[in-house]
C-alpha cells in the first residue's frame, strides 16, 4: 500500500510521517517494515523509484535534465546528479547518451534488447 502511494507521488516530497499516514501506522513501523521487507530504508526506496522512472524518461525523451530533476522531486540538478552517481555510478547525461547510442534508428533490435535486459518497457526507436 505504501509502495503504491510512493510510486503515485514520486515527484513530491514524501516524509516518512506521510507514508505512515497513508498506511495507517506509525513512522517507526514504516521504517521497520521497509528495512525488514525490502532491505531498504523508505528514503532509499523513494530514490530507487525516482531513479528508475527518471532514467526511463531521460532515455525516451530529450527533456532538459534540470526539468526532469524537478519533476521527480529533487531540489535541483546537482542533487539528481549526486544520487545518480551514488546509485548508478554514472551521471544522468551519460546515461542518456549511452542509451541513445545503442538506440539509434538503424539498430532497433539492439534497442529492444537493451530495454528488455534492463527490464524496462520504454524503448527509443
Automatic annotation (TrEMBL):
Classification lineage: Bacteria, Pseudomonadati, Pseudomonadota, Alphaproteobacteria, Hyphomicrobiales
MF terms in GO: DNA-binding transcription factor activity; sequence-specific DNA binding
InterPro entries the record matches: AraC_XylS_family_regulators, Homeodomain-like_sf, HTH_AraC
Biological source species: Lichenifustis flavocetrariae
HTH araC/xylS-type domain span: 1-98
Domain of life: Bacteria
Keyword Methyltransferase applies: no
Keyword tags: DNA-binding, Transcription, Transcription regulation
Pfam families: HTH_18
Protein name stated in the entry: Helix-turn-helix domain-containing protein
Amino acid at each position: 500500500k505504501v509502495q503504491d502511494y510512493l510510486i503515485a507521488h514520486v515527484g513530491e516530497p514524501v516524509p516518512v510521517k506521510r507514508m505512515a499516514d497513508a498506511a495507517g501506522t506509525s513512522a517507526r513501523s514504516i521504517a521497520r517494515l521497509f528495512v525488514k521487507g525490502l532491505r531498504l530504508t523508505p528514503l532509499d526506496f523513494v530514490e530507487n523509484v525516482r531513479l528508475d522512472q527518471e532514467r526511463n524518461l531521460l532515455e525516451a525523451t530529450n527533456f532538459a535534465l534540470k526539468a526532469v530533476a524537478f519533476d521527480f522531486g529533487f531540489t535541483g540538478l546537482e542533487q539528481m546528479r549526486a544520487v545518480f552517481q551514488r546509485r548508478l555510478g554514472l551521471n544522468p547525461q551519460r546515461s542518456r547518451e549511452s542509451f541513445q547510442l545503442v538506440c539509434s534508428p538503424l539498430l532497433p533490435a539492439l534497442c529492444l534488447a537493451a530495454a528488455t535486459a534492463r527490464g524496462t518497457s520504454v524503448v527509443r526507436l
